[in-house]
DNA sequence: TGATAATATGCGCAAACGGTCATGGATTCA
DNA sequence: TGAATCCATGACCGTTTGCGCATATTATCA
């Protein structure tokens, strides 16, 4: 019982789990990806819609969207020429909302955007808000 | 109402907020930092305790601890020779626990460590668990 | 079929990041 | 005071990451 070096097998699993969790958080650790979440958490949108809304380049948005899709947090649907993306991981959207509330609260001890940040979630199914 | 370019002032705030939220998630987007959270979320520990428990180098742990402290998620207390670190952001610990549960659930559709991951939080004040 | 629009991707680049080694600063103890 | 312990930090390095440019791919439309 000296340290972390004993029931090896299980520990490897735990290690692997930490990497998975880190990867999960990585998705949300980038402003552009957060803006994307913010843009499509309520309704699916096409790549070009998102590009226009965020004022970013198509290449960049496409990369982020693909990354998020591979990570399983976005789903996509192709319709003719265009591809619609939407949030596929309700838990992530909720976590986003929680953290946004948390940050907004500790950012505004002066009142502003909090509402906007919280908007990250559609009809907020009233709940937690540890804020 | 063409795009994102209208009520500018507020928008800048929102932009800044996205960066803050991304920074917040960045803290959790690294396996070693997650292991640190896992190690001290229940009780404060000294740097050397953490180093030994994680089997990492003192330099590396120290850097992460300082980073997490500057980010406001850890608090520290110096006592004599040593420095005790502890979780200072209850919301973050809770988010960790939520995500760990989420990931554990979608990792084990085969049953293992889930319990260990959830242990991330001490006496889990029964709640959500959207899992 | 050829032109055009929507999206994805290979390549290269600069910056950020995680890590190590060596060292410095502070505190305890003999 | 000097040795030893604990922690932080500067310098450096390889890898990853976010980005843009150009190009490929796919689908619509004339």
Instruction: Please give the most extensive interface between any two protein chains, plus how many residues each contributes.
Output: A-B, 49 and 50 residues
Output the strand order for the largest sheet of chain A: 1-3-2
Shape summary of chain A: globular
Main sheet record of chain A:
3 strands, antiparallel
What is the rounded Rg of chain A? Answer: 18 Å
Span of the ends, CA to CA of chain A: 39 Å
Average pLDDT figure of chain A: 82
Poorly predicted residue ranges of chain A: 1-6, 121-131
Report the portion of residues of chain A in β strands. 5-15%
Helix proportion of residues of chain A, in percent?
55-70%
Oligomerization:
homodimer
Give the structural class of chain A: mainly alpha
Counting DSSP E segments of at least 2 residues, the number of strands of chain A comes to 3
The helix count of chain A comes to 6
Order of helices and strands of chain A: HHEHHEEHH
Please characterize this protein's 3D structure.
The structure is a homodimer of 131-residue chains. Chain A is mainly alpha-helical and 131 residues long. Helix content of chain A is 56%, strand content 11%. Chain A contains six helices and three strands; from the N terminus they run ααβααββαα. Chain A has helices spanning 8-27, 31-40, 47-54, 58-70, 90-107, 114-118; strands at residues 45-46, 74-79, 82-87. A three-stranded antiparallel beta sheet of chain A has the order 1-3-2. In chain A, a hairpin with a 2-residue loop joins β2 (74-79) and β3 (82-87). In chain A, α3 (47-54) crosses α4. The first copy, chain A, is globular, with a radius of gyration of 18 Å. The interface between A and B is large, with 49 and 50 residues. Chain B binds a DNA duplex (30 and 30 nucleotides) through α4.
